## 1
Amino acid sequence: MAGWIAALALVAAAQFGTAPAQAKPHQLVIPGSFEILAQLPKSHGYSISIGSEDHRHIELKASKGALIASYSVIGRANRNRLDADFGRFGHVSLRFHAPQRKRGGSLQICPGKPAVREVGTMRGSVHFSGPNGFPNASATRVHAVATHSFPQVCKFGNAGGGSSNTPGATEPHPHPHGPGARLLQRLTQARLGGDDQEVALEGLVAKHRTNTGQFEFAVFSIPEFLAIVIASAEETVGRVHVSRGALVIASPRVLKLSAPGAGPQKATVTAPKPFSGSAKYIKDLGGEESWDGSLRVPIPGEGKVSLTGPEFDVKTCQARTKKETEACTNLIQP
C-alpha cells in the first residue's frame, strides 16, 4: 500500500476524536523528511499531483473523493528539479524557478528545528497518459512546493488523564511507499499501555493474485475509535508500479470479529461509500473457509469489482500487544 494511505488516514483520524484519555505518557519520534509536490491540471474530475518524499520515488497521484490512482517510478527529485521516466505512460522533467523560501513554526509538543518550505513555479515538460487514457496530464508550467523538515520528538498523553496532546495533533511524515501499517502502529500505540486484555487493533485482509499483480482488500479497526477500509489493485508495468483503489475512514463497527478460539471463526464486513454491499468470512473447526457476499468497490479506470470469492486468501487478527499489532498490520505487506 502506498504512502497516500498513511497520510490521508492520519489526517482523517483527528476528525474521529483522540486516543483514550487513560493512555500512559509516550513519545513519537518523527524523522526528518523531504517532500516536493507539483499540482497538475485535472483529468476526468480527478485532482492530479506529482512529487516525491524521498528524492528517489516519483509518484503521480490522481484522486477524487475516496478513489485514488497512483503511478510510481524511480527518478530524481530535489529542491531544484523533478525528473522521471514513466515508460509507456509518459515523462516529467521540471525545474524550480525563483521559489520563495519560508520557515515554518514547530508545535510545543513537537519541538525541533522549523521546517523550510519553498513555494513557486516549476517549468519544463509533463506528459502522462494512464491505461485506457486514465488519467491524462500535460503541462509546461505548474505550481509546486518543496518542504524540508527536521527530526522532532513529540510527547503526548499524561498520567492525569488529559487528552490535549494526541497523535492527531501532529503532521505525519510516512515513507512514500511504506504500508499503512506505520499509521496503524502509531494510532494503536496509546492503547498498548493499558489493560492487557483490551483489544488495541483488529483486522481482516483478503488478497488474490491476478495475471498482472495483486488485488487486496483490508479493514483495520481500533475499537471505539475508527476503522480504515482499503481496496487496492496493484501491478507493475515495465518499471512503473501502479496502484488503484479506494480508502475510507469509517466507524469501527464496519468490522465484527468473533472471539479467537471460540467455535467457528467468523467475521462480517460492511463499509460506507464508495464501497457497497457486505461480506462474511467463516472458518470452521475443520479448517474449511468461505469468503462470500455482495461487497464491491469501483476501481479507477475499471468500474466496480467484487471483493469476495474463493480466489481470495483471507486472514484475520486481534492484537493486544505491540508485537501482535505489528504482526496484524503486516498482513497488508505483499
## 2
Amino acid sequence: MLDLMMNKSNDLEIREAFHKKKLSQQHKNKDTLIIDELGLLHGSNRIDIAVIGKKIHGYEIKSAKDNLKRLEGQLNSYSRTLQKLTFVIAPEHLVDVMKFIPQWCGVIIAEKGVRGGITFRSIRKALLNPDFDKTSAAHLLWKNEAQFMLSSLGYDKKSTNKKRIELYKLISQSLSTNELVGKIKETLSTRENWRAE
C-alpha cells in the first residue's frame, strides 16, 4: 500500500518534468514567454503553465493526488482566455477528463514510473479554441498597462479614464487577436516587480 502511495504523482514533479522534457525548446526561444501559475480573469482561476508565443497555450496539471472537483469552474475561465488548452493528467483521470472536456482540448498522460521518473504520452493534440474571447484575455493586463496601451493606439485621456472592463473592451475592439497576444506577451515580459508565484 505504501509503495502505491509513493508511486502516485504530484503537481510539482509533473510540472518540473514537463518543463524539462516537453517545453525545453520553448524555454530556448526568446520569442516565447513561459509563466507558472498565471492568474486569469483577475485571479478567478490560475493555469498551471502558460506558454505565450504566437498563441496563448495553457497546460493544466491533474496529478494522481488531485481531484477534478474544480474542473468545471476552471474550464469556464480557460475557455474564455486561452487559445489552446492541454490537460496533463495522471492515467487514473483519463476517462473522466475525456468525458468532460471539449474536443478542442489536448490531453497528455503523465505517468510516474517505479523509479519516480515521469514520462509523457500524447493522447490528443490541442486545437484552436472556438470560444476564445479577446476581452477576457485582455484581463491579463493591469489597468495602467491597458491605459498605456490605449494611449499608444491614439486614444485620448478621457477615453482611457474608465473602468477596467471598458478599457479591455476598447482594446479588444482595436486589436486583432494576433496583435493582442503580441501586446500581452510584450507587456508581461517587461512587467517590473511582478512574477507569477
## 3
Amino acid sequence: MTTWMVRAGQHGEYEAQFIEDKKLLLTWDGLCSNLAQVPSREALVDLLGQRYPQDSLGRRRNHASQLEPFAKVMQKGDWVVLPRKTDRTICIGKITGDYVFDATASDPFYHSRAVEWLVEGLPREHFGQDLLHSFGAFMTVCKIERNGADARIRAMAANNWKPETLAAQAAGSAELADDTRVVAGALNLSEAGQDQIASVVMARFAGHDLARLVAAILQAQGYHTSVSTPGPDGGVDILAGSGALGFAEPRLCVQVKSHVQKTADLAEFTKLEDTMKTFGSTHGLFVSWAGYASNVTAAARKRFFSIRLWSQTDLFAALFDVYDKLPSDIRAELPLTRVWTVEHTDS
C-alpha cells in the first residue's frame, strides 16, 4: 500500500468539508472534466492549458503531476495524510472509494474519493522532523515515500497513535541528512519555521508556563491580566480585563491546555462556560496546544460572540502580531526574527 498527502485548500479552507463529508476533494476551480477519461498526462497538460490559459507550461505540468495520481493511481486501501493549516494538527485516513467525477457538483468539488478517517487532530509533535518536512511539501497531492514514511505511520497506528519512538525518528533523520533530493524549493519554509518555533515554545513554556506566554500576548494586546499559580486553578488559568485597571469590557476567562498528546474535549469547553459564570465574565478564550475535538469546534461556533478558540495557528498569529511589544524577558526566551521569502502558489 501507498501513503499520500492531500491538502484541503491553500489556506485550509476546505478542511472541515474533507472531514465531515469523509471525502478527499480536488479543489481546482473550474476543472469540470472527467480526469479518468483523459488518455495521458500530456493530454491532461493540454486540457489544463484550455482551462487555465494564463498558466505557464511548467505550472500546468506541475498540476498534471498531482491531478493524474488522484484520478488514476490512488487505490482503495492506500493511506492519506491531511496536514491541517487551521490548527496545525494531522489527520490520517484510509481511501475507501474509487475516483468519482460529478459534473453536477458545485465548483470546485467535481472530483472526489471516499475516505475513512482513522485519526483526527494528531499533534505534529508525534512525528519525526523528517516526516514533517514531507508533510510540508508545496504540493496539493503527492506520494510520501522517503525515510520509510509508510511503515512508520502504520507502526504509529499499531501503537494507538502514540508518538514515534526516538529510534524511528533518529533513523529517519539520518536518512534525511543523506537525501540529496530534499531541496529548499520543495519545502514549505513557513511550516518548517513554525515547527521550529513550536519546539522552542514546548521546551521553554511547557505545562503551566504556556499560560505565562498567553498572558504576555494578551498584555501586549492591551489587557490587564492575572495568572493563576500552578496547580488546581478553579477552571481558569488567566483573568484578563480591558481599561485602566482591567475593569472594562471585554473581560475574559482564559483556559490554557498545554498537553501535546490529547485534543481538548467538550467537557473542558463546558467547564470554561461554567467558570465564566462563576467569575462574572461575558467572554472566554480557550487555548489548546494540541487542537480540539470536532464537537468542540461545533460548540464554539454556536458561542461565537462569547467564546473563542486559539489553536497553535491562532496562538502563533497573535504572537507574531504583537511580538515587538512583548516583555524583553519573554522575547529572550523566545527569540524570533522576521524572514521574507517568495510564496509558492502552485499548490
## 4
Amino acid sequence: MTALGYARAQLQFHIKAALNVGCSRQQVIEAIIQVSSYTGFPATLDALYAAKEVLDTVAEQRDGEAGDAEQDLVDIEDRYERGLAFMERIDGAAGKRVVETLQDIAPDLARYIIEYTFGEIYPRLHLSLKHREIVTVAACTALGTALPELKVHTCTGS
C-alpha cells in the first residue's frame, strides 16, 4: 500500500490488521521506512502520516499505552562499510553490478544507495532481514515499474 502511494484507507486497514495479529507499532513503521528507497519520500511520508493516525487511535483505545518509541541509532561513521557488507549479503553480485553501473553517471547516487539503503535502513532493529526482503519484494511488485529491482531481490537476480 505504501508503494502505491494512493491507497491510504487500505493502508490504514492493513496497519490495523497487522497490529491485530501481533505486529508492533515499530514493525509497522519499519516496514514503511524499508521501502523508502523504492517508493520515494513522498509516498513514504504519506504512509507514515496514515500510520500515525492509526497508531494514535489504537493507543487511545488502549488507554494511551505507549508504543515502542526507542529509536534505532546507526553509527554514521561506518555506514558506507556497513552498507557494502549488507548489500553483498543481501544482493550479492547483482547489487555490486548496480553500483558499478552508476559510477559513470551518478556516483553520488551509488554511494547514497550503499549508505542509506544498506548502511542505515537494513541494519535497523525491529524487522529481520527476511522480513525486510519480504516487504521489499512486495513493494517492488506493487510498483509495477521496478522489475530490475524485483529481480535483484529475488532468486532470479543473482
